Amino acid sequence: MALNKREQAQIERLLVVTLTEACETAKAEIVGFEWLTHEVDYNDFPSSLRVIWVFDTQAQMNLALASGQRERMIELTSAALYEADVQLRPIAAHVQFDSEEQCQRANAGNWQQRLARRHSTRN
Length: 123
What we know:
Number of helices: 5
Oligomer: single chain
Radius of gyration: 14 Å
Distance between the termini: 22 Å
Strand order of the largest sheet: 1-2-3
CATH superfamily: ANL, C-terminal domain
Order of helices and strands: HEEHHEHH
């Protein structure tokens, strides 16, 4: 069943609130973590949802992932989605990691372009 514009807006608001909470928690806990974002195509919701966790540098991202922080970010994502009443399994398949450094190198710091490219190469 397709979601109408009002339902989409409600879900989007909930996602922003709950993912912002996850982001603030992670910034206090995970060295090098900077921010997160999400993308979704509401014509293919919730399976199109992806949450991108962004670090300052590639080295910080690699260190965090190698030291078990990946599981913590997935846990925070899971809690945020639960609060937003978004049921999605497996959540780890919808979580991605990136860095400001890589965006600067590959896309001259243009996140919109980078996320669009990552999305198109994923499909």
